[in-house]
Write a structure and sequence with these properties.
By secondary structure, the protein is of the alpha/beta class. The protein is 46% helix and 15% strand. It contains eight helices and six strands. The longest helix is centred in the first third of the chain and has 14 residues.
Length: 178
């Protein structure tokens, strides 16, 4: 797959800040010469139309793939394997099993709030930006590709892997799906 791939994974809820990532996407697309795809994988619930309107209004439909459904365990890997960067632009969160899943697949994470910055080390295992700021999301994503830091971030995630062992990840995934 020749395009750069961003992944937003998990239930789509207002507090998860997907709209800020969508608002950042036009700038990301411009900076990366259109060579980027955002995969939004998770159940929307009642808000689907609001996000569809936002995608259409921002004219980013060609750059967004929406998988509006629950993802069974056996299908999770394909999305994380395809992703370069997992983007969790949460407005508020105490913790997220998605970060552990991302690290389990050795994928850098961009996030911004709650307990997540304690897990995501800015510039080491991903990026931490201010919540509700599409311009900062765009800047972090573009920096990730322009500075070609994926290898270094992956090495740091591997070093930190003992904190996120497969056993621990199994517990997190179980809790996440319950």
């Amino acid at each position: 797959y020749d395009k750069k791939v961003l992944l937003f994974f998990g239930y789509v809820r207002e507090y998860k800040g997907l709209k800020y990532l969508l608002q950042a996407l036009p700038r990301i697309v411009r900076n990366l010469d259109g060579q980027v795809q955002l995969w939004v994988v998770g159940e929307f619930g009642a808000d689907r139309e609001e996000y569809t309107e936002l995608i259409n209004g921002l004219e980013i439909g060609d750059y967004v793939n929406v998988v509006d459904s629950y993802t069974p365990d056996r299908e999770v890997e394909q999305y994380f394997a395809a992703a370069d960067l997992v983007v969790l632009p949460y407005v508020s969160a105490t913790q997220s099993g998605i970060v552990q899943i991302a690290y389990g697949f050795i994928k850098p994470v961009m996030t911004n709030v709650g307990g997540l910055p304690d897990v995501v080390e800015d510039g080491k295992t991903g990026y931490v930006v201010e919540p509700e700021k599409p311009e900062e999301i765009a800047e972090a994503v573009c920096r990730f590709y322009e500075e070609d830091v994926e290898r270094r971030l992956i090495e740091n995630i591997e070093k930190a892997a003992q904190r996120f062992s497969w056993e621990r990840m199994g517990e997190v995934i179980e809790r996440f799906y319950e």
